[in-house]
Specification:
three-stranded antiparallel β-sheet, mainly beta
C-alpha cells in the first residue's frame, strides 16, 4: 500500500502533576482507516528534576 499523505496528529497534556508526572492525550487525524491503526492514545511519563 502506498501512502501519499502526510501523517498528522494532535496532542495536548498536563504537566507537573504532583511535580513528577506528565499526562498527554494524542489523536491521529490521518491514516485512521488503516487496519490496526490506533486513533487515540494516552501517554503517561515521569520526570525528575535535579
Amino acid at each position: 500500500m502506498r501512502l501519499n499523505r502526510k501523517s498528522l496528529e494532535v496532542g495536548y497534556g498536563v504537566e507537573n502533576v504532583f511535580n513528577v508526572l506528565r499526562i498527554e492525550a494524542l489523536h491521529r487525524l490521518t491514516y485512521r482507516e488503516l487496519p490496526g491503526a490506533t486513533t487515540f492514545a494516552v501517554k503517561v511519563s515521569a520526570q525528575v528534576g535535579l
